[in-house]
Amino acid sequence: MKDVRKHAHELMEGYCKVCPVCNGKACAGEVPGMGGLGTGSSFMNNVAALSGLRFNMRLVHGAEQPDTATELLGFKLAMPVLAAPIGGVSFNMGGKITEADYLEAVLGGCVDRGVIGASGDGVPPFIHETGFAAIQALGGAGIPFIKPWEDKELFEKLDRAVATGATVVGMDIDAAGLVTLRLMGRPVGPKPLEKLKDIIAHVDAKFVVKGIMTPDDAKRAVDAGAAGIVVSNHGGRVLDHTPGTAEALPFIARAVKGQIAILVDGGVRSGGDVLKMLALGADAVMIGRPVAIAAMGGLREGVAKYLDQVRGELVQAMILTGCANVADVDGRVLFQGA
Q1: What residue numbers bound the domain in which 286 lies?
Q2: Helix and strand tally (H, E) in the chain?
Q3: Any idea what the CATH number is for the domain that residue 191 is in?
Q4: pLDDT at 338 over 60
Q5: pLDDT tens-place string over residues 235-244
Q6: Is residue 256 within 8 Å of residue 228, measured between CB atoms?
Q7: Residue 290, class by beta-carbon neighbours within 10 Å (0-12 exposed, 13-18 middle, 19+ buried)?
Q8: What is the DSSP letter of 21?
Q9: What share of the chain is helix, strand, coil (3-state, %, to 5)?
Q10: Has residue 54 been placed in a domain?
Q11: What are the tens digits of pLDDT across the range 160-188?
Q12: What is d(CA 213, CA 68) in angstroms, rounded to the nearest whole number?
């Protein structure tokens, strides 16, 4: 991974500093690029919220070889980890590799390690078109995410997403704040409950709503018929001064746990972070920037190596907190004080 990160640093110069600790401080305000919007506080809050959590270490147990496998949204996963939808290599990552090579690396590396990756959407059209092609080439092994466009573009893209063979399709409703798209004549926006119901009913696949940060929005996603949500503030790239996702997650989990699949992204850097998010109520975790860096620096093999690292860290953390399998993980994993 040192070689992968070194190569990524060379290729992403001017767009991502590939910092030893990816916490949003050195890239605050660098959008386009890999930074967070404005002060960068939303990005930084994601990382800080996770780093502030501590584990209860337990060793008097029999969880010597934890099972990291889980099932989610019809997928059998080797571990509760997915690659988050990040696209726009030329705008955000320096453009030193093609969008096609990048997506093949992310989605293919995930398949190689028994998990699932997601593709993104945006302007110009090659961003979503390349994602659709990569998912189709892998026999539908991926989740295409579409931005919350106005009706005609939205429904056309959703139909094309399903045509890739994907069994799960998502909408990153948190992209509603991307005013640059509206200025380009491609408006995105929030969706009221009745419209969200219509959108989900239109799609012949399981539907995931990404960008949920409050219990009331989570309940609306359930009411609209979504199969899953992603607790996400869009990597801190759409609204400054939001809480970290690990702060919002427990409240959302208490409201809808068991009614809908709960995924979360934001600040996840290690297998230990994955375990923390599971303990807070997530069913699975999406990882964004670190996977993008691994793809840039090492293509498909780089992504696979990074996922190996995450799984190794997750196994170690499960052993040291007494978790025999993913279902064992709950709030007792985390230190709450005396």
Answers
A1: 70-326
A2: 12, 10
A3: 3.20.20.70
A4: no
A5: 999 999 999 9
A6: no
A7: buried
A8: S
A9: 45, 15, 40
A10: no
A11: 999 999 999 999 999 987 766 766 777 89
A12: 27
